[in-house]
Specification:
The chain is built from 1 helix and 8 strands; from the N terminus they run αββββββββ. It is mainly β. Strands 1, 2, 3, 5, 6 and 8 form a 6-stranded mixed beta sheet that branches. Strands 4-7 form a two-stranded parallel ribbon.
């Protein structure tokens, strides 16, 4: 039984912290319920670091024929993205989560 539990816990540790709903132009989004609002997130990898170079957060994004409005940058969205150099924000953000840009050492 302990071996099964240990195997299960090791599997859970490999699962991403959160997932995204879709990706457009290299930016990951999470749909907020049944609304037409999305939050910027990351690819779900445990260490972040999925963004690099210059990233633009648009006012809106279209996915599968539906337009979504970018409302927020989720907690840890750019966490540990040490190669992220610039962020362009076209969106009207209502929220920027804690540690959204934590350890973005190239972002000035």
């Amino acid at each position: 039984m302990r071996k099964i539990l240990l195997t299960f816990l090791m599997f859970i540790a490999a699962v991403p912290l959160w997932a995204y709903d879709f990706e457009v132009d290299g930016v990951y989004y999470d749909i907020q319920g049944d609304s037409n609002r999305v939050w910027v997130t990351h690819d779900g990898s445990r260490n972040g670091g999925c963004y690099s170079g210059s990233v633009t957060i648009p006012y809106s994004v279209t996915y599968e024929g539906r337009t979504y409005y970018v409302d927020a940058i989720f907690n840890y969205a750019f966490y540990n993205c040490t190669d992220l150099s610039t962020i362009g924000v076209e969106a009207r953000l209502t929220y920027i989560g804690p540690r959204a840009f934590y350890n973005c050492t190239s972002l000035y």
